[in-house]
């Protein structure tokens, strides 16, 4: 499929891209190659092929959503460089005037 310079410029505008003149020609060539590659699908007999919805037939195995105490406060604060009773102590990051 051949594309015109105007079509490439319109696509670039829609994608909010800007190309120099030499880049525009390269983009035109690249898009024509892509469209030719995709166009090869037209040559295939796809009458009995069902559309692919998922890449595999696996079903997600979800666990029950249960609240668990996996980490105690003491374990979480054990390696903290600085702490204040039950909290991490961090340097001030916001300046107030």
Which word captures the global form?
Answer: flat
Strand order of the largest sheet: 1-2
Assembly context of the chains: single chain
Alpha plus pi helix count: 3
Poorly predicted spans: none
How much helix is in the residues?
Answer: 25-40%
Beta-strand proportion? under 5%
Profile the largest sheet.
2 strands, antiparallel
Question: SSE order, as H and E?
Answer: HHHEE
Looking at the structure, the CATH topology of the domain at 5-43 is: Histone, subunit A
Number of strands: 2
Distance between the termini: 63 Å
CATH structural class of the domain at 5-43 = Mainly Alpha
The CATH superfamily of the domain at 5-43 is identified as Glu-tRNAGln amidotransferase C subunit, N-terminal domain
Radius of gyration: 29 Å
Query: Under the CATH scheme, which architecture of the domain at 5-43 would be assigned?
Result: Orthogonal Bundle
Explain what the structure shows:
The chain is mainly alpha-helical and 97 residues long. The protein has a domain at 5-43: Glu-tRNAGln amidotransferase C subunit, N-terminal domain (Histone, subunit A). The chain contains three helices and two strands. It has helices spanning 5-14, 21-39, 73-77, and strands spanning 83-84, 87-88. Strands 1-2 form a two-stranded antiparallel sheet.
Summarize this structure as a short list of keywords or feature phrases.
Histone, subunit A, 2 strands, mainly alpha, 97 residues
């Amino acid at each position: 499929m051949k594309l015109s310079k105007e079509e490439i410029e319109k696509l670039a505008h829609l994608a909010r891209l800007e190309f120099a003149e030499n880049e525009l020609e390269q983009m035109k060539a690249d898009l024509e190659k892509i469209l030719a590659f995709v166009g090869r699908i037209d040559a295939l007999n796809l009458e009995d092929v069902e559309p692919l919805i998922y890449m595999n037939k696996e079903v997600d195995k979800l666990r029950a959503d249960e609240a668990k105490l996996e980490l105690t406060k003491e374990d979480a604060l054990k390696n903290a460089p600085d702490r204040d009773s039950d909290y991490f102590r961090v340097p001030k990051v916001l300046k107030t005037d």
